[in-house]
Amino acid sequence: MYYFDELIVSEIKKKNEVALRELYKTHYPMIVNLIRSNNGTEEEAKDIYQEAVIAFYEKVQQPEFILTCKIKTYLYAVCRRLWLKRLAEKKRYHGNIQETETFLGIEEEMNAIEDNEQRFIRMRESLASLGEPCRGILEDFYMHDLSMEAIRDKFGYTNADNAKNQKYKCLQRLKKLFFATYKEDLP
Fold first, then answer.
1. 45 close to 34: Cβ distance less than 8 angstroms
2. Which of 16, 102, 107, 155 is most exposed, with minimal Cβ within 10 Å?
3. Which SUPFAM superfamilies does the entry mention (predicted)?
4. Which residue in 107, 109, 101 sits closest to 84, CA to CA?
């Protein structure tokens, strides 16, 4: 187990509310992402996550409780199961959910999620090191959904095609930065 997980479990056993809040805060974004990417809303994600955290809290209070995986994996599996049940109730999921069903591959799925999180961190770092005006152009286009005309006006290009051409060049620079960083992380 990781040190953070050991500390959280130990503090939750002592009914430490600060530890419970930290646990809640740490894994909440992952669950929002899970629910929203599977036909849910942030409000539904909040409900599901609260149920899972309460279930985890109650399990930890049991004297025989032993955590055999990461807290993150445990919460993800519980939330996924609760969400599939809720979708089945709403007739939005047509699979067969049985009480004895286990989610094989949760560890693999969690590893993929952690890999994606690392890629997002590298992308954010690459974008930050890109410099202006490239960073601004890419953020405006991809994150703020500005049109090429709006970008043309904001950055002073003569026409939208010139702005589009600059965006393409910036994107190529970003890719080079990202993959240069990525290669450094490979064994």
1. yes
2. 102
3. Sigma2 domain of RNA polymerase sigma factors
4. 101
Mean pLDDT of all residues in 9-21:
87
User: Which residue in the block uniquely carries the two structure tokens 């703020």?
Assistant: 144
Chain position carrying tokens 């799925």: 109
**What is the DSSP annotation of 62-88?**
STT----S-HHHHHHHHHHHHHHHHHH
SS3 letters for 135-169?
A: HHHHHHHHHCCCCHHHHHHHHCCCCHHHHHHHHHH
**Looking at the structure, do residues 113 and 158 belong to the same domain, yes or no?**
yes
Half-sphere exposure of 1 (CA within 13 A, CB side): 16
- The first and second tokens of residue 31, run together, are 């669950």
Judge whether 74 and 21 are in contact, CB under 8 Å. no
Q: Whole domain around residue 121: which residue ranges? A: 107-185
The tens digit of pLDDT for each residue in 43-83 reads 999 999 999 999 888 888 888 887 777 888 888 888 988 88
- Cα separation, 113 vs 131, in Å, equals 28
SS3 call for 121: helix
